[in-house]
Amino acid sequence: MKKIFDMKQERAELTASIRSVMNEFENKEMPGEKKEELAKLEAKFDNLNTRITAEEKQLERERLAGEVADKAEPHKRAAVQEMFAKALSGDPRHMQEYHNALSLGTDATAGNLTAPMEFVQELIKGLDDAIVMRQISRVVGPIGPAQSLGYPYRATEADDATWVNENAESVEETSLTYGRREFKPNRMSKIIKVSKTLVSHAPIAENTVREEMVYRIAAGGENAYMAGNGTGQPLGIFTASNDGIPTGRDVSDGNTATAVTFDGLMNAKYSVKQQYRRNAAWMMHRDMFKMLAKIKDTDGQYIWQPSVALNTPDTLLGHPAYESEFAPNTFAAEKYVAVYGDFKSGYWICDADGMNIQVLDQLYATTNQIGYLFDYFGDGAPVLGEAFARVKLASA
């Protein structure tokens, strides 16, 4: 914890140094040696920012592993959990015992396991910790046996009510229309490999497999929540779609073809209605933060404020700013570079029931490993396009 705090303090000092150099030469040509000094400071800033992100992720891994380990003590484990941990070894006896105990219909001889509810709940909890979008969006579901979860949304707003004479007829509403989002259990699949020696220790096996699944699913999920096309996968916030965030929510006014500006960001912020701005946040790639560190408002104050406290996000124009490695980071004409809006109201993530795992105990025998083929089912999509503004760079 102290390490992250110290690095954030160092990052704040670096930011101040970068801004000091920029302020010194704001209205005059910067000499070569100062440009070289600035480049070194920026490179150090980038490196430190990467280390902070990596350390925070590792801290989450350790915390999750510690919580699971506490629950994994033999005297606290339920019998089903113990049998499931043993079944992960691929031993036919343990697999058959687990299947018999739960009266499962899946084929034990083929290595198929249905994860117990506690395992899945811990997995989902780990996903919430690992994926930024799951932390700031609304997680709904599970989908259940219906195989889809419908959500009605307002496609076209109604006209305002009008004042009429006492005996006049009321004006009929003709503009208001509703649509329906369908969340479906899209499949995400992956094979992970774990040392047989490690798996032979049953209490450890379940925790190790779960932790590996968490971070494999986390990467796949976050990528789709950013840029998914909505076909057999979630619909991302950076994907222009009438079923999600339409192009009508793109804001490029004030930006250049290669960079965002204070005016451009303000235009994006205030293109979103007040009721959504109250809980709004920014989402962008880490490369965007370096650009933001140089931008001032009309009063000469820097608009991006780096966090120096643990578990506290950076802020941009008074709102939390989050970063994702899967957000776009190409700063060229007409490219998307950030999204601003109310994620808790406007973006839903839906998990399906259950988790299927196939134990591949022979396929990787030559490397003393066991493979685990797992299937995760879920979906995600923007449900309120008007709750967002997507920051876009200007045309060339």
From TrEMBL:
Name under which the protein is recorded: Phage major capsid protein
InterPro entries assigned: Phage_capsid, Phage_capsid-like_C
Start and end residues of each Phage capsid-like C-terminal domain: 111-392
Listed Pfam families: Phage_capsid
NCBIfam families noted in UniProt: major_cap_HK97
Keyword Cytoplasm: no
Localization of this protein: Virion
Keywords: Coiled coil
